[in-house]
Amino acid sequence: MSETLSGLDGAALRIAAFAARLARPPRLCLETADGVELPPPGRGRRLWVVSRGRCRFLHLPLLPGADRTRQLDAIALEIRRLSPFAETGSYLHLAAGFAAVWLWDQQATRAAGGAAGIDVARLKILPEPALRPPAPDGVRLVEALDGVEGQYWRDGTLACSRWWPAMPEPGAWILFQRGAAVPPERLVAQVPLPQPLPWLDRPWTRAAAGFGLARLDLRLAAAVLGLAVLAGYGYQGAQYLRLARAGAALQREVAARSAAIEPILAARSRALDSLAALRALHALDRFPGQLALMARVAEILPPGKSRLNDWAYDKGQLELSIADDQPPDVVRLVRALDSGGAFRDVVADRTGNNTVRLRAAVVAR
Fold it and tell me: Within this chain, do residues 134 and 253 fall inside the same structural domain, yes or no?
């Protein structure tokens, strides 16, 4: 009897030690454009991380009203259609109304693992962003293993991503935000400094079966199963199943409501395009209005009975005639026009004893 109890205690200790080893932070094998960076020797599970620069990011809308199996089948078809690689590795995050998908060249990853003496088929493969901390809603620029990544987070999910090998130009940064449908009032014109981010012990994503980390980790499952049998957590298992069913029902409701607001989103997109076109047309008018120019000229007219006899304006060039009962002070008029900030290159001609003709270029706004 004592031998039997001793054997059970030894098995429990081995399971506990195995679970503690799995609870250690993962050891990351980092695949970049420059090669593979291996972790230092040690114990703990290993993960293979594909750098953001070697991944393609896709934002795929979900089928309204479709069940989970049909959604995953449709996503798999889209991946085969859009992937540029002969053999594609993929990782999927299911969000409300869309799926965030990362693709990479599986042949290149397998070759990089072979060069480093590692069989990547025995490791979990993750894209770099899945092991970086998520962000609140908005845009940010983060440091990647090679280059920088622009991210737009909406409703707690990475909705849009773009990678650059170096710091992007301001124009490219604005185009990224426009492509991500960032509201105009939240556009960030200046390119921010890239944020360095730590590594997570576990990905923040929700993966689906058949993609990325959704493949079953047999060692972790065995440890959890052994602990569950020893501790008798049957009740918690039942609670988990109940919550999983409730979560699936909530996901279906979210998908249905997302489909219902599609017309509103389309109308919003058209309104944003119209706003951008109006702003572009407004930018073409570089010069102040003629009423503003007349007001500026009226400010510098000599006191008395000075008056405008003639006014001609065309494409930033202005000609006007000023008449008075007495000979006007031409030098004062030229200096007043030239120093106000609205005109430049002012030239004056006296056309009569009491009349002066002025020519000036209007300063663009």
Answer: yes
